[in-house]
Amino acid sequence: MAVREEVNGFYIPSVTLLGIGAHKEIPAKIRALGGKKPLLVTDKGITAIGMTQQIVDLLASEEMDCVVYDETIPNPTDTNVHDGVDIYRKEGCDSLITLGGGSSHDCGKGVGLVIANGGKIHDYEGVDKSTNPMPPYVAVNTTAGTASEMTRFCIITDTSRKVKMAIVDWRVTPGIALDDPLLMLGMPPALTAATGMDALTHAVEAYVSTAATPLTDACAEKAIKLIAKHLRAAVANGQDIEARDGMCYAQYLAGMAFNNASLGHVHAMAHQLGGFYDLPHGECNAILLPHVEKFNMIAKMDRFAEMAVWMGEDISGLSVREAAEKCLKAIRELSADIGIPKGLKALGERYGKKVSTKDIPTMTANAQKDACGLTNPRCPTDKDVMAIYEAAM
Question: Most-buried pick from 11, 108, 110, 173 (CB within 10 A)?
Fold first, then answer.
């Protein structure tokens, strides 16, 4: 609650459609925003499973043409954004549809920013740097984790610096967000696990954020409860539509929480692992989460105790500290159950990358500059951040 004069915003899309069959509304919604020839931003994985063509055909059935850009990579780059901008202009597009997870949405947001405001994507690193509204924009989500389909966050890798740029701008919030569990049935277990832990990280970091409000607290609480209930089932059986639908709502609620309360040092540090080694964001978050929150725990011990209960832990008869530690235990157990690697070195080996302690000083310096760290509940020194990286190795 406020203890001084302050104003808190609450940012979400104008319209969100959630539920089975929601994707069928894409043509009507892009038209409602004034779009006639959208650029469809996605990735090769989505194209390979036939989903891109499914959406192209859906648009064609409503006599709407679109242009596809499917070169987005898992950690989208400045090159991806500017290639998308070139295609948008060359093909005479007038609107955007993003199809996929956070990578596609972030790339599309970057395209829209540059189309509307000019310059390069690097010009918008930081908070609210744009001045013009985005083109008409519908974000269609296919994973239950990033919530990028509904946030004002856009994370783009600067290829020259090997740093993920955090762009936080209320104008990049999609006009319309769609979450359809039918589009998530094909997600493999590892991706389901990674994106689900990303959502949990969003909810946890938002709940202990220095910018948390009663609105964001309510969203974070429900998100954590739904993730604890549904994530294991979604990983175990990707065709479990109830679990998929539960995770749709969970990740969206977690997005509502962090979109307005912001995040913390888990994300600030994970961004460096993504930018430096091109490692998957969700798994980086999952590995860092218990280590960062162990450091943060003394700042918000009562809140960690509450989260332990939401994750299904029995805290009867325990002290607040003991109950808070149960939260960290629950996070580790969930990660283990769904197959998250135990440490950063193991994660690197999974993807053919060599994660090295020699890079920790550089990653630490960059993490300390990341905008996500501004609302961390405890202020870490460089030495603290380096120790967390080392513990997570």
Answer: 108
Closest among 24, 281, 34, 234 to 140, alpha carbons compared: 24
Cβ-contact 145, 251 below 8 angstroms: yes
Q: Is the CB of residue 258 less than 8 Å from the CB of residue 223?
A: no
Q: How far is CA 305 from the centre of its chain?
A: 25
- Distance CA(40)–CA(30), nearest Å, equals 11
**Which 8-state DSSP code applies to residue 77?**
B
Question: What pLDDT was estimated at residue 1?
Answer: 56
Residue 198: name the closest of 148, 142, 125, 260 by CA. 148
Per-residue pLDDT of 30-58, as tens digits, reads 999 999 999 999 999 999 999 999 999 99
Say which residue the tokens 């609105």 belong to.
215
The pLDDT value given to residue 25: 97
Neighbours of 353 (CB within 10 A): 16
Phi and psi at 71, nearest 5°, equal: -95, 5
Rounded Cα gap, residues 95 and 31, in angstroms:
10
Best CA proximity match to 194, nearest among 341, 79, 320: 341
At 162 the pLDDT is 84
CB atoms within 10 A of CB 86: 12
Q: What is the DSSP string of 200-254?
A: HHHHHHHHT-TT--HHHHHHHHHHHHHHHHHHHHHHH-TT-HHHHHHHHHHHHHH
